[in-house]
Amino acid sequence: MSNGKTISDACRAWLKRCELDELECATLRSYRNHVDHHIEPAIGELCLASLSRSDVRDFIDDMLDKNSRAMTDKVLRSLRSALNEALDREWVDNNVALSVKLRRSSRNAPDRVIPTKEEIKTMLRAAPTKHRPLIVTAIYTGMRMSELRGLRWVDVDFTRSIIQVRQRADRFNEIGKPKFSFHALRHAAASLFIEQGWPAKKVQTILGHASITMTFDVYGHLFDNAEDDVNLFAKLEADLEAA
Predict the structure, then answer these.
(1) Each residue of 207-233: pLDDT tens digit?
(2) I need a surface site. Which of 30, 152, 189, 219 has the fewest CB within 10 A?
């Protein structure tokens, strides 16, 4: 497949999709930083049709020489998402970045805190009455902190037991410093969803991830056979979006 499209074209199309999906401002800034300061300067002019796993591997190795593993991991996720966008637009036949892994030793593993079920129970028992509704909602929905801050009574349908996320609030007042951050409660919700056997696509939709790849990147270790399934889910996502 040769259409003259470049990695830069894929990145810009992906960023536009993220804007249309109304992702949080902080998330968009982060994605733009990945594209503007890392992906485009290094490989932006490469043609999508000729991009190989070796090209991606070389790019990631070069990133590791100049940046932290955490930043390299984030940029790799963004590149995968951009190539998924290209796949969705039929600019490429497959996403060559999916099979490129950033292997970590336990020493370099990210500090992603996921409370255990017992710790969640303890938090619920000890939650102050004033903050309990917020904590319970965070645990059972996986909503982002900005989404919780923007939640209004009109967004809650008690009859159907449905919460609709219609707005976000970027700023909030401090309510203390618990052992776990509210983002850890989002991780806790995801782990509970997966423990219940929910399909990865459903988890992606509920958490509002831009792609199934992101869901596997963050929570893949909690799924059975995640390594085997990621390519199948990426293809499924592309097929569903094209339908």
Answers:
(1) 888 777 778 777 777 766 545 555 555
(2) 152
pTM strictly above 0.70: no
Tokens of 193: 């969803």
Helix axes 117-126, 182-195, angle to 10 degrees: 130
Give Cα 1 to chain centroid, integer Å. 29
Q: Which of 71, 97, 41, 114 is nearest to 211 (CA)?
A: 97
Q: CA-based Rg of the chain, rounded to a whole angstrom?
A: 19
Contact 139, 150 (CB under 8 A): no
Residue 65 class from Cβ within 10 Å (0-12 exposed, 13-18 middle, 19+ buried)? exposed
**β-bridge pairing 162-163 and 156-157:** antiparallel
Q: Is 21 helix (H, G, I), strand (E, B) or coil?
A: coil
H/E run at residue 163:
strand 162-163
Query: What would the two tokens of residue 236 be?
Result: 């499924």
Q: Nearest 5 degrees, angle CA 32-CA 99-CA 109?
A: 70
Domains and CATH numbers, the chain: 7-99 (1.10.150.130), 117-176 (no CATH), 182-242 (no CATH)
